[in-house]
Amino acid sequence: MKATELTPEDYNPYYKGYIDLVEDASLLIALEKGKEQFKKLLAKIPDEKLVFAYAPEKWTIAEALLHIIDTERIFQYRAMRFSRLDATPLPGFEQDDYVPVSGANKRTKQSLLQEFLDVRASTISLFKHLNDDQLRFRGSASNSPMSTAAAGFVLCGHQEHHSKIILERYI
To answer: Alpha-carbon distance 58 to 52, whole Å?
Structure first.
């Protein structure tokens, strides 16, 4: 399935900006491409800039990177639940509450990279084993409908969104 095959019923309009960042590729290709892009992004970040924030009250690079990982875990979990036809409404999450207790600024680039690669491998494994029907199944998260596939494309676009911010404002 490609992001262009999603319908407005597959996700809340809030996520359209993330989904639009995913090129017209299949979900598995987008996930693999994102994995390679994350590696290249980390290679461009000098070690001393990992705890740099471009303005007061903004996240550091390390916090933004861990936020990408945390969000992928959440959307992967949502996708798994939706793909199993779990109709239990899933709550949203407050990203700004996660960051202060994440310990991101005490992490190394290598530890963040390894965690991302581990999580992405799990995400790829999940989506690799879903059929077209399972990708179209819908659930509810943050009081809005979302399809399994949309959850995957959102996490790809979310990574791209934050990667662009890191490149434009931090490095």
So the answer is: 9
Q: Which residue has the tokens 């399935």?
A: 1
Residue 138 has what pLDDT?
A: 98
Which tokens belong to 41?
Answer: 């992004």
Cβ-based burial of 30 (10 A; exposed 0-12, middle 13-18, buried ≥19): buried
- Give the Cα separation of 139 and 77 in Å (integer): 12
Tens of pLDDT, residues 15-63:
999 999 998 889 999 999 999 999 999 999 999 999 999 999 999 999 9
Over 90: is that where the pLDDT of 160 sits? yes
| CA 100 remoteness from chain centre | 19
Reply yes or no on whether the pLDDT at 171 is more than 90.
no
Which CA distances in Å does 154 have to 13, 16, 80, 108, 145? 11, 8, 14, 26, 13
Cα–Cα separations (whole angstroms), residue 64 to 68, 79, 92, 105: 6, 22, 19, 10
In terms of residues, how long is the chain? 171
Mean pLDDT of the chain: 96
pTM, two decimal places:
0.96
Task: Note whether 33 and 25 are within 8 A (CB).
Answer: yes
